[in-house]
Amino acid sequence: MIVWVTGANGFIGRHLVHELAGAGHAVHGVGHGALDAAESRRLGLQSWINGEIDAANLNALAAAHGLPAQIFHLAGGSSVGISIERPFEDFSRTVASTARLLEWLRGSAPNCAVIAASSAAVYGADHVGPIAESAIATPMSPYGKHKLMMEQLCGSYAQSFGIRCTIVRLFSVYGPNLRKQLLWDICSRLAAKEQVLTLGGTGNEIRDWTDVRDVARLLASVATPSSQAAFRVINGGSGRGTSVSDIAAGLIRQWGGNTVVRHSGVSRPGDPLSLLADDAVLRQIGFDWRIPLDRGLADYVAWFKGQAS
Amino acid sequence: MIVWVTGANGFIGRHLVHELAGAGHAVHGVGHGALDAAESRRLGLQSWINGEIDAANLNALAAAHGLPAQIFHLAGGSSVGISIERPFEDFSRTVASTARLLEWLRGSAPNCAVIAASSAAVYGADHVGPIAESAIATPMSPYGKHKLMMEQLCGSYAQSFGIRCTIVRLFSVYGPNLRKQLLWDICSRLAAKEQVLTLGGTGNEIRDWTDVRDVARLLASVATPSSQAAFRVINGGSGRGTSVSDIAAGLIRQWGGNTVVRHSGVSRPGDPLSLLADDAVLRQIGFDWRIPLDRGLADYVAWFKGQAS
Predict the structure, then answer these.
(1) Which residues form a coiled coil (chains A, B) (predicted)?
(2) Which of A5, A46, A80, B85 is the most exposed place for a label (fewest CB within 10 A)?
């Protein structure tokens, strides 16, 4: 099957391409990143266009390799902080790119299914306990607001033009190759032999941690929906919450040593106390999370030490 | 005061420019339309840029005439039907233009207040009776969905960057110069001496009709908010509902003659049975609608006959 991945050179994109190519699909990618042909092939891509998600590039891919049966749409802003520093850039990457993609599909490949990566950031900071897909979305940051607008655009093209879209709201995705956020920060400071790690917040913040290899398998598995609904939204979370202090302790245990963790008690404005998926829909689909947190953290530490050496 | 109007050459824009210039403001415009200098001045514009709402054009306006204290943002898609035929065009006009405007304001004129024209189409088709601003927004068409996204972008820039935005959700605006929609259609057919007018729908559809001259005065009056809230949404409707069959009868009465109106009974998919504003917020502000429907319809018929002759 011909499948395309936008943002294929990103953290999740690379793992997804690996998963899809491993399943025997012909995978083509478009997005930012100066990958040469050898590197593209190594990742599992049959071809790669380094550029915008726009009609010219999508036409070029189609002309060279045929129309896709599925598009995994991972291109978009990827940082709450950068979305506050440069909101228009985040808008362009997340919303405008999706509008161009959907419009191209409407005209050129209306039977292609879209699987779009959204974020738990659409839920905002006001939820307690597991959050169902039907919960009110009150995103705090431009990043979260733009992701919600991306979902709405998909919903609009699904409702008005029958484009089939599956939205997967991803939670706290971590794993090999993630070079930012909490785990990267902690490992970097462990590598620098800090004896006392002071982290922001209280340490009691709950997140739903998922290993990127499981997430890649999840995205691939929802591409062929069992139902005929043109539009659906799925929580891509495990339903298991772990506090930041437990994550830090787990990482340090895998790392070795007896580094002490302290928390500043100062939270970033708008940082949710809890972002935990209600996983009822995923359980109904029958998806199985395979990489428990302990193993995921061990793999992350092993990758970190390996890439740093 | 320096004020700018985007989409100043549109139906509502022209009336708004007239209102603002009459109040003594220095009014500048940007949007589509090949207005020459004489025509611009006649409309009340001190200057006009025929082009996109983008940083280059906004910079040019600011360099030539100084920064605005208020921007009335009326540029955007203006037709449900066209939004279904060409959804990306509607997205570009409504959402992408707003993103560019807000980003420019953030960098270049953060103290400028924005007054943005939205639409009752954001409410969708499921409401009965007066609709409050807090009602759930379930827009049906790309037009309504994009208007909602425009509102969300304004809310995002208000919340994250303190840009002051007032959203006015307009209902069924009619009046001199409106050359489309129900009133135009009926008058055109009366002018063609059709003896029996067959209209779509049941005739019982309720709309909240407002004369564009009142709407222009409303937009100008909410530009200086009494409260300090960075973001607010206001229904720009009168709170009075009138059925399509009563509008048709009123128009025919003003026109003269005894044309008969029939209704096909066939409604357009997604066409709401009722779009009526809860006007509590406007009443609290103290806004007074001055042009009753009878006078508005009489003026419309007089304008129609005058422009046609």
Answers:
(1) none
(2) B85
Q: Among candidates A51, B130, B182, which has minimal Cα distance to A29?
A: A51
- The H-or-E segment that residue B206 falls in is strand B206-207
State the DSSP H helix or E strand holding residue B246, giving kind and residue range, or none if neither: helix B244-255
DSSP A102-130: HHHHHHH-TT-EEEEEEEGGGG-S---SE
Which stretches in chain B have pLDDT values below 70? 225-227, 308-309
Q: Which of A4, A10, A7 is nearest to A178 (CA)?
A: A10
Which pLDDT score, from 0 to 100, does residue B229 have? 79
The whole-angstrom separation of Cα A228 and Cα A225 is: 7
Q: Could you give the ipTM of this predicted complex?
A: 0.72
**B226 within 8 A of B305, measured Cβ to Cβ:** no
A257-283 residue pLDDT tens = 889 999 999 988 778 999 999 999 999
In a domain, B280, yes or no: no
Q: Are residues A220 and A159 in the same domain?
A: yes
Of B84, B149, B157, the CB nearest to A160: B84
B161 touches chain A (CB under 8 A): yes
Alpha-carbon distance A12 to A177, whole Å? 9
Q: Are strands A47-50 and A26-31 parallel, antiparallel or unpaired?
A: parallel
Q: How far apart are the first and last CA of chain B?
A: 39
Q: What residues of chain A lie within 8 A of the CB of B102, using their CB?
A: 87-88
Distance CA B270, CA A190 (A): 58
Q: Are A68 and A113 in contact (CB under 8 A)?
A: no
- Look up the pTM and report it: 0.85
Q: Residue B152 and residue A156: Cβ atoms within 8 Å?
A: no
For chains A and B, CB pairs below 8 A equal: 65
Q: Which positions in chain A touch B87 (Cβ < 8 Å)?
A: 102-103, 106, 156-157, 160-161
Q: What is the pLDDT of residues A224-250, one digit of tens each?
A: 766 677 999 999 999 999 999 999 999
B165 and B216 share one domain = yes
Nearest to A160 among B100, B142, B156 (CB): B142
Dist. CA B182–CA A167, nearest whole Å: 38
Structural domain boundaries enclosing A69:
2-173+210-236
Instruction: Please name the residue of chain A whose CA is at the shortest distance from the CA of residue B88.
Output: A103
Residues 6+ apart with CB under 8 A from B197: B186, B189, B190, B248, B259, B260, B261, B262
Residue numbers in B near A87 (CB within 8 A): 102-103, 106, 156-157, 160-161
Chain A contact for B153, CB < 8 A?
Answer: yes
Residue B31 tokens, joined: 């949007």
Residue A131 and residue A202 share a domain: no
How far is Cα A85 from Cα B29, in angstroms, rounded to an integer? 29
- CB distance A99–B100 less than 8 Å? no
Instruction: Kindly report the three-state secondary structure assignment for every residue of A153-181.
Output: HHHHHHHHHCCCEEEEEECEEECCCCCCH
Instruction: Tell me: do B118 and B259 sit in the same domain.
Output: no
Q: What is the distance of C-alpha B104 from the center of its chain?
A: 23
User: Residue B60 burial (CB < 10 Å; 0-12/13-18/19+)?
Assistant: middle
Q: Do B156 and A148 touch (CB under 8 A)?
A: no
Q: What DSSP element (H or E) covers A234?
A: strand A231-236
Residues 86-115 of B with CB under 8 A from A: 87-88, 91-92, 95-96, 99-100, 102-103, 106
